[in-house]
């Protein structure tokens, strides 16, 4: 199977798995479903894209650490944006509160930090790795190629959140996806956007939650 078809199957299978997992929030422990999707993602990535791992890891710890600093800034901006949005549209508070209630499943986001790490890195391999590379090959020529790549991969990343039924979670996924895809496009490093993504998740979901 060529790399483009592999990427399509990879992204489609993980997207389907994530949508199923999202629909089980409140029914099955969220960390169990998250771990299951992460395991599926890593297994499929190893089967189809293990030759790409070395290239995706370009920049290593240095890029990851720099990205993590960016994640702190991104979390600070998220807090400011949330305060503005909830003042104008109070309904957003209920959606965020529901998300935190799901994340409160045992052992909680801090206790489940190893699962969070595996899930975040798996998401990066799927959407900023395989999906990004496949879309970039398709749009490697022409005007606004990078904008198209970032836009399309951001939309693909947000699709699983449609299963939540929350427009706010879809918007957040779209915006975050755009930020992380832009970092991949700018730096060429999956390590950099992975550091940003993991730090943002760790703060917003665990150590510096939004004031709902």
Write structural notes for this entry.
This protein is an all-alpha fold and 212 residues long. It has helices at 3-23, 30-49, 53-56, 60-88, 91-103, 108-111, 113-138, 145-158, 167-187, 190-207. It contains ten helices and no strands. The longest helix has 29 residues, at 60-88. The protein starts with a helix and ends in a 5-residue tail after the last helix.
Short account of what is shown:
The chain is built from 10 helices and no strands. The protein is mostly helical.
Summarize the SSE layout with pairings.
Elements (H helix, E strand, L loop, with lengths): L2 H21 L6 H20 L3 H4 L3 H29 L2 H13 L4 H4 L1 H26 L6 H14 L8 H21 L2 H18 L5
Helix pairs in contact: 1-2, 1-7, 2-7, 4-10, 7-8, 7-10, 8-9, 9-10
Keywords:
single chain, 212 residues, mainly alpha, 10 helices, globular
In the predicted model, the low-confidence regions spanning at least 5 consecutive residues are none
Tally of separate domains? 1
- Element-level helix/strand string: HHHHHHHHHH
Q: Approximately how much helix is present in the residues? A: over 70%
DSSP summary, beta strand count = 0
Mean pLDDT: 94
Distance between the termini: 47 Å
Please give the count of helices. Answer: 10
User: Any idea what the radius of gyration is?
Assistant: 17 Å
Based on Cα principal axes, name the global outline: globular
């Amino acid at each position: 199977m060529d790399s483009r078809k592999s990427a399509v199957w990879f992204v489609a299978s993980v997207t389907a798995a994530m949508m199923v997992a999202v629909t089980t929030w409140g029914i099955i422990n969220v960390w169990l479903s998250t771990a299951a999707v992460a395991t599926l993602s890593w297994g499929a990535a190893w089967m189809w894209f293990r030759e790409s791992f070395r290239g995706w890891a370009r920049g290593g710890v240095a890029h990851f650490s720099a990205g993590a600093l960016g994640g702190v800034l991104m979390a600070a901006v998220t807090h400011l944006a949330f305060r503005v949005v909830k003042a104008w549209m109070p309904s957003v508070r209920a959606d965020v509160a529901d998300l935190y209630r799901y994340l409160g499943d045992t052992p909680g986001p801090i206790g489940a930090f190893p699962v969070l790490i595996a899930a975040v890195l798996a998401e990066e391999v799927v959407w900023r790795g395989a999906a990004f590379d496949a879309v970039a090959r398709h749009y490697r020529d022409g005007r606004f190629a990078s904008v198209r790549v970032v836009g399309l991969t951001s939309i693909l990343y947000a699709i699983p959140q449609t299963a939540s039924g929350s427009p706010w979670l879809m918007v957040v996924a779209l915006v975050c996806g755009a930020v992380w895809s832009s970092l991949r496009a700018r730096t060429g490093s999956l390590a950099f956007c992975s550091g940003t993504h993991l730090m943002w998740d760790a703060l917003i979901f665990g150590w510096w939650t939004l004031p709902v």
